[in-house]
Amino acid sequence: MSVLVNKNSKVIVQGFTGTEGSFHAQQMIEYGTNVVGGVTPGKGGSTHLGKPVFNTVEDAVKTKGADTTIIFVPPAFAADAIMEAADAGIKVIIAITEGIPVKDMMKAKPYVKKKGAILIGPNCPGVITPGEAKVGIMPGFVFKQGRVGVVSKSGTLTYEAADQITKAGLGVSTAIGIGGDPIIGTSTKEAVQLLMEDPETDAIVMIGEIGGNYEAEAAQWIKENGNKKPVVGFIAGQTAPPGRRMGHAGAIIGGKDDTAIAKMRIMKENGIFVAESPAEIGEVMAKALGVDA
């Protein structure tokens, strides 16, 4: 059991023959992910990296039974690629593309929901279930199998958290990089909920950043649902000045509850163990689980 992706996922790559798509598809195949093909309009019928290329997602679903997609399509066309995947019946859509226009995402997000699919991203590192499937751009070797779930807005901090968890003698069940754009398909709360319901996840690391209310919403949901599993939280951007965008398009302090300090306070108030720096994540998680790091 895992969430979103596993060894049985039938994965396609949209933007398969492009530079980014090719590089990361090769990495995913080498990791052992079940990549069944890819989509590049106009190149259907050819072969790339030893896998079939299709003109449309619908063709890939009909021919290969694809149920998961990863999108490496330029920003101007990425929302259409997301909606095409949902239309074709893909259930897990992972959009890596950064900088998709907000007006496009305002259309794509409800469309995906209406079709009953889950969208991760955009502007995210993807999802990995160690030892089973890597559907993303993360360095697979950092992630070791275990029972700690990771939810993160930041790509690099996802890898740092995984490294810290490994060093503490623990491992990762599934890591979900939800993305840092202003409009993303899956919120922190929704990703935490998936891991809370996963019988093979014993604890969760929740990494957020300044801007928005995703972390506060997740923290409140965790408390309302009885703090069933220990959660360790970390917020990036503790020195960020108000009104300045930091890194991600969604990382901007808009109000008093958007600051790192306020978010850390809210997490503590809701029974979450808070790490003051990324270097403490493994240690705090080991304490939360009552094991020696």
Automatic annotation (TrEMBL):
Gene Ontology CC annotations of this record: succinate-CoA ligase complex (ADP-forming)
Signal peptide: none
A Pfam family assignment: Ligase_CoA
GO MF: nucleotide binding; succinate-CoA ligase (ADP-forming) activity; succinate-CoA ligase (GDP-forming) activity
Keyword field: Ligase, Nucleotide-binding, Tricarboxylic acid cycle
GO terms for biological process, alphabetical: tricarboxylic acid cycle
Reactions performed catalytically: succinate + ATP + CoA = succinyl-CoA + ADP + phosphate; GTP + succinate + CoA = succinyl-CoA + GDP + phosphate
PANTHER family xrefs: SUCCINATE--COA LIGASE [ADP_GDP-FORMING] SUBUNIT ALPHA, MITOCHONDRIAL, SUCCINYL-COA LIGASE SUBUNIT ALPHA
Description of how the protein assembles with itself and partners: Heterotetramer of two alpha and two beta subunits.
The protein's role, per its UniProt record: Succinyl-CoA synthetase functions in the citric acid cycle (TCA), coupling the hydrolysis of succinyl-CoA to the synthesis of either ATP or GTP and thus represents the only step of substrate-level phosphorylation in the TCA. The alpha subunit of the enzyme binds the substrates coenzyme A and phosphate, while succinate binding and nucleotide specificity is provided by the beta subunit.
Protein name as it appears in the record: Succinate--CoA ligase [ADP-forming] subunit alpha
Organism this protein belongs to: Cyclobacterium marinum (strain ATCC 25205 / DSM 745 / LMG 13164 / NCIMB 1802)
Gene expressing this chain: sucD
